[in-house]
Automatic annotation (TrEMBL):
Gene3D superfamilies noted in UniProt: Cytochrome P450
Transmembrane feature ranges: 25-44
Family, similarity comment: Belongs to the cytochrome P450 family.
Protein name: Cytochrome P450 86B1
Organism of origin: Gossypium hirsutum (Upland cotton)
Cofactor(s) needed: heme
Originating gene: LOC121215947
Pfam family, one: p450
InterPro entries in alphabetical order: Cyt_P450 (IPR001128), Cyt_P450_CS (IPR017972), Cyt_P450_E_grp-I (IPR002401), Cyt_P450_sf (IPR036396)
Keyword field: Heme, Iron, Membrane, Metal-binding, Monooxygenase, Oxidoreductase, Transmembrane, Transmembrane helix
């Protein structure tokens, strides 16, 4: 009897356990179903918002997952695709805890509105200034209001002076013939490939340091030595850019704790400051000993050292450091990066290269000594008036800048409620990104052939014709139009003509060319090329055809 009772109790226990487990499983299943249903609802709702906003909007995270995906591929093409789908403007929504919310536009009407019509309403803004201040301080690239106006006015007078123009033209000539061509000839003689982007960056870096600081760092010479200041400056610009795609609270915490990219930035800026401080200290000593009859320097640093601030006092060393570094940033990359993409595009478009060479030879043929049978083997130096005549070359460079602008995106911040011409509402404090790279890929702006490399779109009856600065914004527009635009074109044309007349540039087979995420549009892996010297017979063909 006891055994039966025990067995019955045991069976009841098993049944009870089974029932309780089943009930628990059913409760767990209900919770799981609820979670899955909620997730499906969130996913569907987030993806549905893509039709309106251009990207899925996730709870708490906003559009951050899509941004991360864009960063892992090609960010500039990613932005371009969205803008094309959204008719030129979209609103990016970042995580709720971040400062990544902004309006992104590539509409020429909006650009004219913010760069010209409502210029005072769209300054660089506190967000931009705070993000880049560690590197650029209060220099012209980062400044607003009176600080910007004072620097702009002084720099404008200097840039348009005959003395400064002569200095820049002479420095380009010297650097090309005494530095660039020997480096290229050495590569040809040794049958080695070179990183043309690196060589061009060295050229423009030496040039802009000579015009801004009055100092030749010697980056471009045989052996291509590493210059600590140049390396520190490049590392600092890369680390600074990463702040724009990192929540402000995150990078500021990293800066306080001296971690990751912020640690690298701090170290790089220290190297930049040491160089600048030494140059300023040396220049002050030179000026104190300089006599009236001695030839005066005309570099930017010396010019600003001779001026006074609004209180009638000499500018501080910090101010001098800021303005010179800003001009180095602006002057170094515009030309060298544009030339790198230009030579890459030329290799893909050999017909364009032939037309440029034909134009160069036609202009050379107009020389009196060529008419009298001058020897092609003698060193050829292009004259300023010859460079000005090279319209097809200028068109080819402009077309490269249209497709691969040196500054692919730029930033503004609205200081009062406003509305863009396309109807986009802007609340005070809204950050605005204008995507210059994307503009070159908009059919609405450049037509169905917008992705093709066609210098002819810049020519009217064989003469170069510029486009609106709000359609072609490689040199900015409005009151902030690049002061060095004319010199940049002169420098690019002189360098390009000097190389193309002597060499054919071939990209190394298998070399990958993609943009790098930086303040300016570097090629991520550089531009590895082989140089093939042009034979005299090849040049004679073009010269005879232009007789």
């Amino acid at each position: 009897m006891n055994n039966v009772t025990a067995n019955m109790s045991s069976d009841e226990g098993v049944v009870g356990n089974f029932v309780s487990r089943r009930l628990f499983f059913l409760q767990y299943l209900h919770v799981l179903e609820f979670v899955v249903a909620a997730l499906v609802f969130v996913v569907i709702n987030s993806l549905r918002q893509r039709r309106h906003y251009g990207l899925p909007v996730w709870p708490f995270l906003g559009m951050l997952p899509s941004l991360v995906s864009g960063l892992r591929s090609d960010l500039y093409e990613w932005i371009s695709d969205i803008l094309c789908e959204q008719n030129g403007t979209f609103r990016f929504k970042g995580p709720w805890f971040s400062s990544l919310n902004c309006v992104v536009t590539a509409d020429p009407r909006n650009l004219e509105h913010l760069l010209k019509s409502k210029f005072s309403v769209f300054p660089k803004g506190p967000y931009f200034r705070d993000t880049v201040r560690d590197l650029l301080g209060d220099g012209i690239f980062n400044a607003d209001d009176e600080t910007w106006q004072r620097q702009r006015k002084t720099a404008s007078i200097q840039f348009h002076s005959a003395k400064f123009r002569q200095l820049t033209a002479e420095s380009v000539l010297e650097l090309v013939h005494a530095r660039l061509l020997p480096v290229l000839e050495n590569a040809v003689n040794q049958s080695i490939s070179i990183d043309l982007q690196d060589v061009l960056l060295r050229l423009t870096f030496d040039n802009v340091c000579m015009t801004a600081f009055g100092v030749d760092p010697g980056c471009l010479r045989l052996g291509l030595p590493e210059i600590p200041f140049a390396k520190a400056f490049e590392d600092a610009t890369e680390a600074t850019l990463l702040r724009f795609v990192t929540p402000t609270c995150v990078w500021k915490t990293m800066r306080c704790l001296d971690l990751g990219t912020e640690k690298k930035l701090k170290k790089s800026i220290k190297g930049v400051d040491e160089f600048a401080e030494e140059v300023i200290r040396t220049r002050k000593k030179e000026l104190s000993l300089q006599t009236e009859d001695k030839k005066q320097r005309s570099d930017l640093l010396t010019v600003f050292m001779r001026l006074k601030d609004e209180q009638g006092k000499p500018f501080s060393d910090k101010f001098l450091r800021d303005i010179c570094l800003n001009f180095i940033l602006a002057g170094r990359d515009t030309s060298s990066v544009a030339l790198s993409w230009f030579f890459w595009l030329l290799e893909k478009n050999p017909v364009v290269e032939q037309k440029i060479l034909a134009e160069i030879c036609k202009i050379i043929n107009e020389r009196d000594d060529m008419k009298n049978g001058a020897d092609l083997k003698s060193p050829l130096i292009f004259r300023p008036e010859e460079i000005k005549k090279m319209d097809y070359l200028k068109a080819s460079l402009s077309e490269a800048l249209r497709l691969y602008p040196s500054v692919p995106v730029d930033h503004k911040e609205v200081v009062e409620d406003d509305t863009f011409p396309d109807g986009t509402l802007l609340k005070k404090g809204t950050k605005v990104i204008y995507a210059i790279y994307a503009m070159g890929r908009m059919e609405a702006i450049w037509g169905k052939d917008c992705r093709e490399y066609k210098p002819e779109r810049w020519l009217r009856d064989g003469r170069y014709m510029s486009e609106s600065a709000y359609k072609f914004t490689a040199f900015n527009g409005g009151p902030r139009l690049c002061l060095g635009k004319d010199f940049a074109y002169y420098q690019m044309k002189f360098v390009a003509a000097s190389i193309l007349y002597r060499y054919r540039v071939e990209v190394v087979k298998g070399h990958v060319v993609v943009p790098k995420l930086a303040l300016t549009m570097y090629m991520k892996h550089g531009l590895k090329v082989n140089l093939i010297k042009r034979h005299e017979s090849e040049l004679q063909v073009y010269l005879k055809n232009n007789v």
